[in-house]
Amino acid sequence: MEKTNIIETQGATKIYTSSELTVKAVDEVSIGVKAGEFVGLVGPSGSGKTTMLAMLATLLRPTDGRLLIDGQDLVTMSDRERTRFRRQKIGFTFQANNLVPYLTALENVELMLRLNGTNGKTGRQRAEALLTRLGLGDRLDNLPAQLSGGQQQRVAIARSLIHNPSVVLADEPTANLDTERANQVVGIFADLIHEEKRAGIMVTHDLRMCRYVDKVIQMVDGKIARVVTERSEIDLLAGSSEFDRLAPGSTDERQSPASLSSPRLKAPIPAFAGGD
Amino acid sequence: MSVYLGIKEVWRNKGRFFLFSLVIALIAILVLFTAGLGEGLASANKEYLEKLDAELLVFQEGTGYSTVESRLDYRDARRISRVEGVADAGPIAFSNAKIVFENNLEPIDVSFIGVEPGKPGAPTATVGEGLRSNRAKVALVDQRVAQAANVNVGDFITIQVTQGTEEELYDLRVAGITDGQQYFFRPSIFVSLPVWDMYRPKADPSVSSSQPAVNVVAVRANGATTLGGLPAAISSAVKDVESTDIKTAYESAPGFAEQQSTLNTIKAFTFLIGALVIGGFFQIQTLQKIPQIGMLKAIGTPNPVVATASILQIVLVTVFGVVLGGAVTVGLSLGLPSGVPIIFTGTSILIAAVSLLLIGPIGGLVSIRLALKVEPLSALGM
Which member of B4, B11, B292 has the closest CB to residue A97? Predict the structure, then answer.
């Protein structure tokens, strides 16, 4: 039986208007992401991928079209409903400023449970287990300033998953990490999304990170330019610089054909326990 | 949730928040000392009048309620006491004297006040007995005088006054000691009016009367209900007088309003500085936290949680600073010389403390508004 989409957009459009200019940041984009599916949203700057992510995260209202998560229409929700929806249904990892600086790694993860009123002994145990699984078992009581960039991103991943969200969104999660850390972080992210059957979308400039996703959606000028679903094509994309040729219009983020030093990390994740 | 976030941030940044509390404590010390000084100076001016067992003071008409300018006939008190609604009336006469000592101790300047024993204006003794006779050469002394001159009931004090061109010395037996009864920045000694007229500074020492001219008449009313029409009734019954309530009377003292308005201006500016300092601190802190607040909102933290956490921090820091400042103020006040006119009791201190507690949230309002307006998308640079 065909699995239903957890994330579904139908003609999602976002138009920014000013006195002199009208810009279609997202132009009638329709996508679907199923449970356990990890999608890479790629494209040059200004292609609309972050706007798309922001709309899915209920941080931005579309100008037109429908956005559905778990069958719930994001467009018709009030601001209060959107805030509640974000903390209950969405896990979010950002490029930077992911963690609350005065909370420990464990407290940062527990934060989502506290926000949802589901913290407690069981919640703490789950948070500890998740962080341990992410190789941070000995860093539970460390403040973000005492963690490396990669460790902080792993804490953010744990936080984005701890409350069992339907959808996990990541905005450039590897932008501030070196290649090795980037591979570790996205590898873990992908594994957890697959294992826990979440619908995941990662916006990234780094095409090498596409090797961890199940589907690549390339956006150009607010539209979907190409959807890559074949594993061989995705791997080719991740390992070469042919993306520009495959998708005309992508001119400003040329990727070098770097040979990836770290293979995809397989569970059990604590293989790299000890941190970066 | 907001309590959790607010407290955690303060706890994990104890040093920064403590330093800021110290700034608030310093502001609190300044405000409390200013308020204490205001209270002390006001008290030094009005203590005797404020404690009068009377509701009204009657002055000579046209003197603007000035005890210095006003002159009333001694018999006016009798006339006034016969006015309907008046329970009793007592004449009061003010002058100055100096208590001197044989052993070269520093003389004490006092307000030398003549009253009619048993009438409004004559204070009651807390130790010993009050004035009983018009003739006895006895005095009731303010506890400050008793303390400074080291005298007890039954001891003698010597007052020095200028009569004519001579410095005259008179002995008075201390019949009793009153509580604090300062008038015009001096502790007071009370004698009967005939004794007062005999011993007061004057140009002609040979002239004295058992019924001298007095400055004011203190009026005790027959219940508060009759108070409204009483000044008019007194004015119509007795010629050339005007009456007012006690508060207006001491506020009309020369320099009183100017002094209090100066201190109130200092207080107001200190409060303003406090509000700006607190507002500035939390504004800068909020500006630094914009990405963090944006992230919190992006993961689903409701606006009220963000705002309440900020308010809680402001209240915590302010309360701690004010309590600390209050404790330091009390400590410092214990070491102050007795002559310094600072009083840390009274409503003005309470108002100052409450106002200090309010300036935190008021000063922090801008930062709370800023926190509420943070847009997750722009804060996170998305």
Answer: B292
Cα–Cα distance between A167 and A180 in angstroms, integer? Answer: 26
The CA–CA distances, whole Å, from B142 to A72, B98, B181, B186 equal 82, 14, 6, 10
CA gap A160, A134 in Å, rounded:
13
Length reported for chain B: 382
Q: Which fold has domain A5-46+54-231?
A: Rossmann fold (3.40.50)
Q: What is the pLDDT of residue B226?
A: 61
Residues on chain B touching A103 (C-beta within 8 angstroms): 8, 12
Model ipTM value = 0.80
Element (H, E) at A195: helix A179-195
Burial level of B153, CB count in 10 A (0-12/13-18/19+)? Answer: middle
On average, the pLDDT of chain B sits at 88
Judged by CB atoms within 8 Å, which residues 86-115 of A form the interface with B?
86-88, 90, 92, 94-98, 100-103, 107, 111-112, 114-115
Q: Is A36 left (phi over 0), alpha (psi -120 to 50) or beta?
A: left
Q: Which CA distances in Å does A14 have to A5, A51, A217?
A: 22, 8, 18
pLDDT of residue B123: 92
Contact B302 A103 (CB under 8 A): no
For residue range B124-170, what is the model confidence (pLDDT) as tens digits? 999 998 888 877 889 999 998 888 888 899 999 999 999 888 888 99
Q: What is the pLDDT of residues B288-312, one digit of tens each?
A: 888 888 889 999 999 999 989 988 9
Cis peptide before B291 (omega within 30 of 0): no
Nearest to B377 among A60, A95, A107 (CB): A60
Q: How many CA atoms lie within 13 A of B317 on its CB side?
A: 36
Partners of A218 in beta bridges: A42, A226
Q: What is the DSSP letter of B107?
A: P
- B380 to A97: CB separation less than 8 angstroms, yes or no: yes
CA B1 remoteness from chain centre: 44
Tokens 């310094």 found at: B340
Inform me whether the C-beta atom of residue A67 falls under 8 Å from chain B C-beta atoms. no
Contact flag B382-A53 (C-beta cutoff 8 Å) = yes
Overall residue count recorded for chain A in this entry: 276
A86 with B291: Cβ contact below 8 A: no
CB-based contact B328:B25 (threshold 8 Å): yes
Cβ distance B193 to B214 under 8 Å? yes
Amino acid at the residue B126: T
pLDDT in tens, B172-230: 999 999 988 888 888 999 999 999 999 999 888 888 777 889 999 999 988 765 677 88
